[in-house]
Amino acid sequence: MAGESVIPEVEMNAGADQAAATVRVTVVQAASVFYDTPATLDKAEKLIAEAAGYGSQLVLFPEVFIGGYPHGCTFGLVVGNRTAKGKEDFRKYHASAIDVPGPEVSRLAALAGKYKVFLVIGVVERAGYALYNTALTFDPLGKYLGKHRKLMPTALERVFLGCGDGSTIPVYDTPIGKIGALICWENRMPLMRTAMYAKGIEIYCAPTVDCMTTWQASMTHIALEGGCFVLSAIPFTRRKDYPPPPEYTFGGLEEEPSPESVVCSGGSVIISPSGTVLAGPNFEGEALLTADLVGHTEFSLEIAWYGSQTLERSFEPSLISMWWATTHDLRC
């Protein structure tokens, strides 16, 4: 009807009984506009508006959607040397990142309020000269709730992204459920998952750029292990989504990919606590995947058997152990 909002105003009374609630969610599978953060924000708004038009109450974007994932970029690095072009590549990538808080965060908050959605979105966070792989969360009233920094960048990400320190692993208690996010391969860290389970996570967001079919097994396992809904947003990108050569080149390849070559093939998915795939995986192109999450009562294994208080007290040294356990792993 004319004049009505796209979806009803969300009443912010966290902790209300949601046992029988149905929550509509959308996972975004799309490419960033590389080196152009204003254009990426414009694209994000169009996608949020479209998802809100479906009645979605939560919208999840891929890992580092704002700022982009630098597939194929070497930043001119070899041990003991960096090329002039590599330094310029990093300068442009750094310029595409965003400050948290900052004007881009304010705009994202305004978009969440305008379209009345919970918004979880991956960004490249800039803190001085350092960059972080960060997930931001916003509520339907246009409020920035907080951030999670990826604890351990994967493989060569470590040459341009800093490490999180475990101080930002929030789970937000909201009217649609307890929402949290872990980024890409930190979803393979058992203690990170356990921290989320101990906080009672119900809608588990897993933004990533891992488009391998094995990722689907990890997402199904987490849904079953945690007794939670799992949403994973993965970009779908082609070579033409990056600047053309010689401005941007793909290292480690015998020849430059054609403009239509697929760089990241998607695979976004939504999975229920029983392991049922509710939407996806989609490997065909840019898409919005939407599903209805029906409230459930978990009557099975208690994962966080230590209890949240014990886990909170012991988590810091556990994170240190986890950090050391992952530093040797240079797989992509």
TrEMBL record:
InterPro entries the UniProt entry points to: C-N_Hydrolase, C-N_Hydrolase_sf, Nitrilase/CN_hydratase_CS, Nitrilases_CHs
Keywords per UniProt: Hydrolase
A Pfam family reported for this protein in Swiss-Prot or TrEMBL: CN_hydrolase
Reactions catalysed, as given in the entry: 3-cyano-L-alanine + 2 H2O = L-aspartate + NH4(+)
Catalytic residues, chain numbering: 63 (proton acceptor)
Record has Glycoprotein as a keyword: no
Domain CN hydrolase positions: 23-295
GO molecular function terms attached to this record: cyanoalanine nitrilase activity; hydro-lyase activity
Keyword Cytoplasm found: no
Family to which this protein belongs: Belongs to the carbon-nitrogen hydrolase superfamily. Nitrilase family.
Name this polypeptide is given: CN hydrolase domain-containing protein
Biological source species: Urochloa decumbens
